[in-house]
Amino acid sequence: MYKQIDSNKRKTWLLMFIFIVVIIGLGWAWSQYYGDEAYGVIMLAAIFALVMSLTSFYAGDKIALTQAGAKQITKDDNLYIWRLVENLSITSGLPMPKVYIIEDTHMNAFATGRDPQHASIALTTGLINNLENEELEGVIAHELSHVKNYDIRLAMVVIICVGLITLLADWMLRSFFWRDRRNSDNKNSGGILIIVGLILALLSPLFAKLIQLAVSRKREFLADASGALLTRYPEGLAKALKKISQQTQPLRTANKATAHLYFASPFSGRNVQKLFSTHPPIEARVKALMEMA
Q: Which of 1, 52, 80, 238 could form a disulfide with 289 if both were Cys (CB 3.0 to 4.6 A apart)?
């Protein structure tokens, strides 16, 4: 587990570095196409990438929670959920995270934040209303394991990096097509850059998916195992997974950028291809848990 924590910390900084390099590369392509001084544009791109990287690191959790429509609660709002999270936090040796509720009949949950001291956990009302106490404990323990393993930091940075790279690629492609070139000498290079921009825009969804998969599906198995050890009842988490696998309605606020955050794929009922799913098959997770029982 400690190796996993160290690995996640390294992956976070590596991903932020790659993100900055990609943004600088896009800035260079922009400068070459428009005939501007490459140095100035690259500097602006580097500053922009650095600012966005820091934003993802320090405010990515707020962005994810806002996008999910999560509302923070206090002990008085829902004492039952508050006590479950508090008791499991004490058992795991973690600080009490902020607790959020998502008003949706879909059963799911996620944890986010840059470290255990700045963590949040969000649960849908569907999850709360449809799971038994032991099953809900298993899901919360799973999410707290993500907090302890620093999975939340890596997953949070992915949201901003993937989303922004995709957005910039699309924006540059549109700009290449619709803006008249100021200099006929750039005709050949402009044509090449249009092709590069087109390829980048077309492949950006694949790039986004590959980066998400780079976070590794193994972290879900690790969190399942850690959560089961925390509750001492693997069957509870296995039962929760079985119930979640039977739902057909997707989470209304889910999108591709945040899908990897959730306890299970939020796209239930959309026939997601298992090859490109951000989560391992539920059947495999259940089997691994039952072998621990």
A: 238
Q: Span 260-289, mean pLDDT?
A: 76
CA 14/CA 121 separation, integer angstroms? 25
Please indicate if the annotation marks 260 as binding a ligand.
no
Q: What share of the chain is helix, strand, coil (3-state, %, to 5)?
A: 70, 5, 25
Identify the CATH number of the domain defined by range 68-152+217-292.
Answer: 3.30.2010.10
Unique residue bearing structure tokens 């930091």: 153
| pLDDT above 70 as % of the chain | 62
The closest alpha carbon to 238, from 151, 142, 118, belongs to 142
Radius of gyration for the alpha carbons in the chain, expressed in angstroms and rounded: 21
Q: Which of 149, 127, 162 is nearest to 263 (CA)?
A: 127
> pLDDT tens digit string along 78-134?
999 999 999 999 999 999 999 999 999 999 999 999 899 999 999 999 999 999 999
Axis crossing angle, helix 133-148 with helix 79-92, rounded to the nearest 10: 50
For residue 154, what pLDDT band results from cuts at 50, 70 and 90? confident
**Rounded to two decimals, what is the model's pTM?**
0.75
142 is in an annotated binding site: yes
Specify the DSSP element, H or E, that contains 111: strand 109-113
Q: Give the residue numbers annotated as catalytic, written as ranges.
A: 143
Confirm or deny that 118 is annotated as ligand binding: no
